[in-house]
Automatic annotation (TrEMBL):
One of its GO terms (molecular function) is DNA-binding transcription factor activity. This is DNA-binding transcriptional LysR family regulator. Keywords: DNA-binding, Transcription, Transcription regulation. InterPro entries: ArsR-like_HTH (IPR011991), LysR_HTH_N (IPR000847), LysR_subst-bd (IPR005119), WH-like_DNA-bd_sf (IPR036388), WH_DNA-bd_sf (IPR036390). GO terms for cellular component: protein-DNA complex. Belongs to the LysR transcriptional regulatory family. The keyword DNA-binding applies. PROSITE patterns: HTH_LYSR (PS50931). The keyword Acetylation does not apply. It comes from Salinibacterium amurskyense. Residues 30-87 form the HTH lysR-type domain. Pfam families: HTH_1, LysR_substrate.
Length: 341
């Protein structure tokens, strides 16, 4: 089930109270859902967050955990401050969960291939700009070519999309990264995911057309050291700070939004200047009062997809990847925005 938000986030509600009965033989073989639950609790620290990422209501997850603890004859979680922590038994179970669940997923994928299944489900997570550009084209293509394939989609910035992938709540994440970003969430050393580039896109400078540099062919960021800046998401903000640092100044950021249309609206009213990836402009009509320029130094970002190791053995994921990579650059909706001068 795809992750959903609960109506409340009371992490201490529903922590199972355990009464063990030994009138029967204990079964110390954990079920798959229990493995997923303890792994999620290990990563997130609360019952409510574990329920959210797994796509269950908190009461349903707590009830399953209570039954699992009674059947195993061991407590798996205990209260700890405002959250919960795993007991020694819970930690032991969590330490094996990733290996076991990956093996089960791989086995399921092989069986699906052998069975020649023509249907399935793929869960995709992607960043906001992709929601209005890449994702609609991808989903339309999948539905036209594979009508029996169910496609679920959730919007998430790259760090959150990668977390959904790690949690097992998404099968494929479409993300972006900037070069030499030391905080790049894709830099995994544990082999927990595989990143495959799709294309790179330029980052452009957006100025009010009343700006003194609005008629320039290209604009040095250093010449904008005294301007007010508009920043985007955490990754985009970090990229802006890094570029400005290279030019020897720290930008004065007064407005922040990851909504490209809002950025253009702010700029058109002379409220600041901004950097925007070209993809963010591809589905928008530029408002009056805005000019687009090539910044100096130039910059770009990489659009990519991310999967867990072995995911290509799952037919629905393999089909989605094939469709995604087959879409050429001309169908991504990218427009050519030359510097205005």
């Amino acid at each position: 089930m795809f992750p959903r938000r609960d109506t409340c986030d009371k992490s201490m509600i529903g922590i199972p109270k355990i009464t063990f009965s030994y009138a029967y033989s204990m079964d110390t073989t954990p079920d798959l859902l229990s493995l997923r639950i303890v792994r999620a609790i290990s990563e997130h620290g609360t019952i409510s967050e574990a329920a959210r990422v797994l796509g269950y209501s908190q009461p349903a997850l707590s009830q399953h955990l209570t039954r699992a603890q009674s059947r195993l004859g061991l407590a798996l979680v205990v209260r700890s401050g405002r959250g919960v922590r795993l007991t020694e038994a819970g930690r032991a179970l969590a330490s094996h969960a990733v290996t076991v669940l990956n093996a089960v997923d791989a086995a399921s994928a092989e069986l699906a291939e052998l069975a020649g299944l023509s249907s399935g489900t793929v869960r995709i997570a992607a960043f906001p700009t992709a929601s209005s550009t890449l994702v609609p084209r991808l989903i339309r293509q999948l539905r036209q070519q594979h009508p029996n394939l169910t496609v679920n989609y959730v919007e998430a910035e790259p760090p959150q999309a990668l977390q959904l992938l790690r949690d097992g709540s998404a099968d494929l994440a479409i993300t972006f990264s900037y070069p030499e970003d030391r905080a790049d969430p894709h830099l995994s050393r544990d082999g927990s995911h595989t990143t495959v580039p799709l294309f790179t896109e330029p980052v452009v400078l957006v100025l009010p057309d009343t700006h003194p540099l609005a008629k320039a062919d290209s604009v040095s960021l250093a010449d904008l050291a005294n301007d007010a800046w508009i920043a985007g998401c955490a990754l985009c903000r970090g990229h802006l700070l890094a570029l400005c640092n290279i030019e020897g100044f720290a930008p004065e950021i007064g407005l922040e939004t990851d909504n490209a249309l809002a950025v253009l609206s702010f700029v058109s009213r002379g409220l600041g200047v901004a950097l925007l990836p070209q993809l963010a402009l591809s589905s928008l009509t530029l408002p009056e009062g805005v000019s687009i320029h090539a910044p100096q130094p130039s910059s770009e970002r990489t659009i990519q997809y991310v999967i867990q190791p072995g995911a290509t053995r799952i037919p629905s994921v393999a089909t989605t990847i094939a469709t995604l990579t087959a879409l050429g650059g001309d169908v991504w909706g990218l427009k050519d925005y030359p510097a205005q001068g």
